[in-house]
Design goal:
Structural class: alpha+beta
Low-confidence stretches: none
Strand order of the largest sheet: 1-3-2
Largest sheet: 3 strands, antiparallel
Oligomer: single chain
Shape: globular
Radius of gyration: 14 Å
Mean pLDDT: 76
Helix content: 10-25%
Number of domains: 1
Number of strands: 3
Amino acid sequence: MKYNDIKLEDYKPHSIGYWPQFTSTSKDFDTASGFSFFKSGMDGQCLVFKIFLNNRNYPVTNIDFVGGEWSMFENEQEVLLFPYFAF
C-alpha cells in the first residue's frame, strides 16, 4: 500500500479499526511517527494511531517487550499486536 492509496479523512478519532496481521507498535510517539510512511509523502503529514491497552484483555491481545529483553532496539518500546486486534 502506498501513502497516496489512503485517504486521511477515512480515519476519524474514536473509530474502530484492525489490522489482519501482527503489527508492530511503539509506546514512544517519536518512534511511531518516525515509521509513518505518510511523513515523507504527504507534505509532512503523519498518521499515527493512539491505541489504549490494558492487562485485562482476554484473550491476550499483545506482546509488550517490557525492558526490551526481546527487542534488538530497546529504545523503541515495541508492542506487538496480535492479528485482528480491534482498536
